[in-house]
Amino acid sequence: MVKDAKIIDISYDYAPIIKMDPTLFINRVKYQSIHDIERYGKYLVFILDTDAMIMHMRMEGKFYIKKINDHVSSHEHVIFSFSDGRQMRYHDVRKFGTIHLLDKNSYKNQYPINGLGKEPKDLDPLDFYQLIHHRKTAIKNVLLNQHIISGLGNIYVDETLFLSGIHPKRLANKITKKEASKLVTSAREVLDKAIALGGSTIRSYTSSLGVHGRFQNELNVHTKFGEPCPKCQNTIVKMKVGGRTSYVCESCQK
Ligand SMILES: [Zn+2]
Prior knowledge:
- By secondary structure, the chain is an alpha+beta fold.
- The protein has two domains: 7-109, N-terminal domain of MutM-like DNA repair proteins (Alpha-Beta Barrel); 120-248, Helicase, Ruva Protein, domain 3, CATH 1.10.8.
- The protein is built from six helices and ten strands.
- The strands form three sheets. A four-stranded antiparallel beta sheet has the order 1-6-7-5. Strands 2-3-4-8 form a four-stranded antiparallel beta sheet, covered by helices on one side.
- It is elongated, with a radius of gyration of 20 Å.
- The termini are far apart.
- Bound molecules: zinc ion.
């Protein structure tokens, strides 16, 4: 949808999102075209003529494609104008998102992309077991750690643990090889479903990062506090694990 779009102007109203001098950023990005969009964990990477523009949208960020004359909302902080009269607007209520600009030939070896763990689809289950089996920390924290496995946010981790039948507070060093394998396949299942239900436009990229749209209706446990578990009908409970609100069926998840 934005592939081959040529960026002819950029405006912003909140500079801290742009992780370099905004004037330099604008001068470098202006007149480059978007050739491809890649995803690394929670990062979205726009491949331009010579640079890679790396976005992290945190919880709330999303992109909208609008026409140049459409009303600009107060939450649209960075606006890319295309030569065809459309605009790609970065919308972020909490303003926690970030944009890095790096050379497209070397960005994978630089912050923030370097040091990221593999995504579930690329992660060998036995390698995952090796990464976690010495860690005396709750499995939920391990799954949220982007240096170990990337792409899973709080919601996806709750769903992954539920499908795996594993309690979020279980210590990672108590997870068996078989369970580690189950976690990786469950994480793939959750992400595939989220992407499939997110649609096929640019919004699907935000959907695969935060959770929007129809995937929200397909959750098994997350946000389902007080409701019956879809597997066993036991009541779903809410608890804090590593500071994050977690939803658990304590009868299915051991
Ligand atoms: Zn249950």
